[in-house]
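Please check this one:

***
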Amino acid sequence: MSAPTMPSPTQSHNIDFLVRQLFALNATKGWHKDDITSAAMLAAKISLVTDELHEAAAAENKLEFNGSKPDGQIIEYVDVCWRAWELIHWLGFTPSELMSQRSEEFTIEVMAKGAEFSIVCEPKPTDPVVRWVSYLRMANRCVRMVRRKEPRREVALVLMLLSFGCMGEIGILCHEVGIDPMEAFQRKYDYNVTRPQRHGGMAF
């Protein structure tokens, strides 16, 4: 099965479309063989979101390239978003469905607004460390919610809120290094297309 083709980064992208593309790509890489209906597996997959957040905090540069591999804080936040969105998909929801109370269609273009985009979700502290801690708390909260068997829609909503915050970080950081936020998503997507089955040494 060949990987799905991602459209040009100059186009506007609906988040739901990106989630479908990412989900299809990960299927070609063998990542959809786990029993996501298990609360233990779902909690374990959510814990990977916290791993990505820690990598974002530990990144020494905002954006760098090791050969064809994009790296840095921006890319780690891209990974957080992707893991959160795929989990939302696994839970049976779409980003637009979760935010149906808002009239706007969420697109990648909105990330260029940086912090202003995230403020639609909750007040955004100016200290990036405080913001990062809030994202970590959201991820840990999702794990606890799954273990307590709380409604999956509630888990998905917290994951969506977490991704919105990280999209704001991507917008801010991309503005600082002078690239389009969509380019960051495109670069990581293109790199993942070239990676082998169940890459990265991860068990799930």
Notes: The beta strands are 64-66, 69-71. The mean pLDDT is 77. The chain has one domain: 15-193. Helices lie at 15-28, 39-58, 73-90, 95-98, 115-118, 128-147, 152-177, 181-193.
